[in-house]
């Protein structure tokens, strides 16, 4: 059986949708920080400053990120390296 290019593109698009589940940044923050979740303005600052890795995507008027995204502060990690001597 020979697949047409349309079928393979549809299968590829379906695979991408299944792999790339994004969650709203506010929901991610609740999941990661619980009841001590930061304010939405803080989340927007983190997005702007690149502190959420991998970076969230803006879709429409909202930001979405991968469920396994993490908060990383480059200044804090640099200080840790300087203090730790590495």
Q: How would you portray this structure in words?
A:
There is one protein chain. The chain is α+β, with helices and mostly antiparallel strands and 86 residues long. It has one domain (21-84): Multidrug-efflux Transporter Regulator, Chain: A, Domain 2. The chain contains four helices and five strands. The protein has a three-stranded antiparallel sheet with strand order 1-4-3. A hairpin with a 2-residue loop joins strand 3 (57-59) and strand 4. The longest helix is centred in the first third of the chain and has 15 residues, at 5-19. The radius of gyration is 18 Å and the shape is globular. The termini are far apart. 9% of the residues are buried. The model has no long low-confidence stretch (mean pLDDT 83). This is Excisionase-like protein. Keywords: DNA recombination, DNA-binding. Pfam families: Exc. InterPro entries: DNA-bd_dom_put_sf (IPR009061), Excisionase-like (IPR012884), Excisionase-like_sf (IPR038137). Residues 25-74 form the Excisionase-like domain.
Q: Could you outline the blueprint of secondary structure elements for this entry?
A:
Elements: H1 5-19, E1 23-24, H2 25-33, H3 40-49, E2 52-53, E3 57-59, E4 62-65, E5 70-71, H4 74-84
Antiparallel strand pairs: 1-4, 2-5, 3-4
List the keywords:
DNA binding; DNA recombination; 4 helices; Excisionase-like protein; Multidrug-efflux Transporter Regulator, Chain: A, Domain 2; 86 residues; two-stranded antiparallel ribbon; globular; alpha+beta
């Amino acid at each position: 059986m020979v697949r047409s290019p349309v079928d393979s593109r549809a299968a590829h698009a379906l695979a991408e949708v299944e792999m790339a589940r994004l969650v709203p940044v506010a929901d991610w923050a609740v999941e990661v920080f619980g009841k001590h979740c930061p304010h939405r303005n803080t989340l927007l600052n983190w997005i702007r400053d690149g502190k959420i890795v991998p970076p969230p995507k803006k879709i429409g008027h909202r930001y979405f990120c991968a469920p396994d995204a993490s908060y990383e502060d480059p200044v804090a990690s640099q200080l840790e390296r300087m203090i730790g001597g590495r």
